[in-house]
From TrEMBL, chain A:
One of its GO terms (biological process) is transmembrane transport. This is ABC transporter permease. The keyword Isomerase does not apply. The lineage of its organism: Bacteria, Pseudomonadati, Pseudomonadota, Alphaproteobacteria, Rhodobacterales. It comes from Pseudoroseicyclus tamaricis. SUPFAM superfamilies: MetI-like. PROSITE patterns: ABC_TM1. Its main location: membrane. The chain crosses the membrane at residues 21-41, 76-95, 107-132, 152-180, 201-226, 259-281.
From TrEMBL, chain B:
GO terms for biological process: putrescine transport. The lineage of its organism: Bacteria, Pseudomonadati, Pseudomonadota, Alphaproteobacteria, Rhodobacterales. Keywords: ATP-binding, Nucleotide-binding, Transport. This is ABC transporter ATP-binding protein. GO terms for cellular component: ATP-binding cassette (ABC) transporter complex. It comes from Pseudoroseicyclus tamaricis.
Amino acid sequence: MAGGLFSTERGRTVALVTPPFIYALLLLALPLGAIILFSFWQKDGYDVVPTFTLENYRAFLDGEVYQVLLGRSLKVSAIVTVITVILAYPIAYFISFRVPNNRKSLWLFLITIPFWTSYLVRVFLWKVILGYNGVINSGLLQIGLIDEPLTFILYSVNSVIITLAHAFAPFAILPIFVALEKIDRSLLEAAQDLGENRVTTFLRVTLPLSMPGLMAAILIVFIPTIGDYVTPELMGGSGGKLIANMIQTQFLQLNNAPLGAALAIIAMLCVTLISLLLIFLNRRWLRV
Amino acid sequence: MTADDRSALIELRAVHKWYGDYHALRGIDLKIRSGEFFSLLGPSGCGKTTLLRTIAGFEPISDGVMYLDGRNVAGVAPNHRPTNMVFQSYAIFPHLSVAENVGFGLRRDKRSKEEKARAVGEALEMVGLAGYGARPSHALSGGQRQRVALARALILKPKVLLLDEPLSALDKKMREQMQVELMKLQREVGITFILVTHDQEEALVMSDRIAVMFEGEIGQLGDPESLYRRPNSARVAEFIGMMNFLPGSVSGTTVEMPGLGRAEVAAEQLTSGSFTGPARIGIRPETLSLLFDGEPDRGRVAPGMVDEVVYYGDMTYYDVRLDGVPEPVRISMKNLIGRPVLDVGTPCRVTWDEQALVVLPAA
């Protein structure tokens, strides 16, 4: 027993696995378990009573406002994801295929620079750009293209979408870039050699081979946007609130943690289902 | 127009390629005949792969003219050239099965699905991979990947098949086996093969003709035997096989060598043209022989001493110091029954033949 814990293969395995296990337990499993538990408990005045109930879930099924908010959340997330990924792909493609190798890290670095500032600051900057007297409106007014400020770009779902799409851009660019970088360039030459032009080479080789990165980008953007409440709070106005704002309201303003927890669980289940569906479709049709 | 011109499938005239300041191809003139197994041989960086890629259309040429099958191919993209390529990395599409890889180029083909599937099956059979169609391509070994790459290119029945160091990633046994298979395949399909290689043995074994390239130029062009027997420069001689060089001089066709004496050679043995003055006289190790007891000399005998012995089993390489020759010469001897392996320091006699000499001007 000279070596103690590290003397056996099993001991080493346990020693290696323990710290991340404790980490996962404390930071992931415990909060999640607490939320699940809360969602089945009762609210009594300002307190939460540990009595089992399905009342919170029933409230969701009966409350049209929750369903509307969740539906809007899913819709906004889907639109943000599509916009972000469609805009990110050409950028990632350009860096991977057109920028010389020794400049690539510089380009990636430049792309991440705006994200050194706080998320909150960036949201407020979008207010400056999109606002009633913002850069866009005053600019368009100055050159006489519009007579009065555009209102559809601020305090609406649209402004939420614009802000979120910008916020998540690098998270979409990076995985797509990595997937494109991994593509052996001789495969593209081979496709051309076998009769394909640039466009068909892209469709038959580059795009399918970059699908893992594309999927990662879609999930990385889609999942956190559902839970984002800062942007809709600040940019959404009254019509642009999302399910996360309702969860926040339930927890912090209405002191109804059980209902907030139930809403959180339902939103999470939606995300899980959609993600699984995407992964399944990807496996089934693209075999990557 | 001579018969030779008519059968030239590929013709390059004064082809140059610049990469910025770097002159990769320096005036290549070349005709490759239809049905030929042609090799571009040279050390790395000599421009052989660049030349292949200009023929495939991946690199535009900077100057000169290139005809493929009678057509000037300036500005013609790879997908519109009658060439197909086997890449050094094989470039097998990882997201497609073996059959999908082989059938990749058939998309524009007008044939029915069934006919295409049959063509894919036949192509796989031709390269010895019958029944592998459904396998995922990432599960293939190196040799199998190469066969898939071959089938994928040959199924399109190109006029020219371009092979970029196709055997360099394989182990020695596999490489030798594939050399023979490639030769057989080429004879079977009758397609012109252009092989890029840095392996002189591979080029000698497989090719009808070889262009030896150095620094963007063709050093010598010829069939394997003439390249080996009559190299026109010291670098060709040293790149293909092993060559002893003795200092000497030449006057007309009379060669004078210290230690070995005077010899008469044929005009063709002055492979870079006739000249008078100091010369480098090349002689291959296997054309020099140690004289063992009872073996006939070839009329010429020089005394020497064994300086180094390298035993290879079937062969023994001797470095022998000849009287009057500054550097030891290398001699390769078959280990026939009854022939002893000499020890270092043994006095010996060396016989040689003036027909084996190659006479080049001294550098």
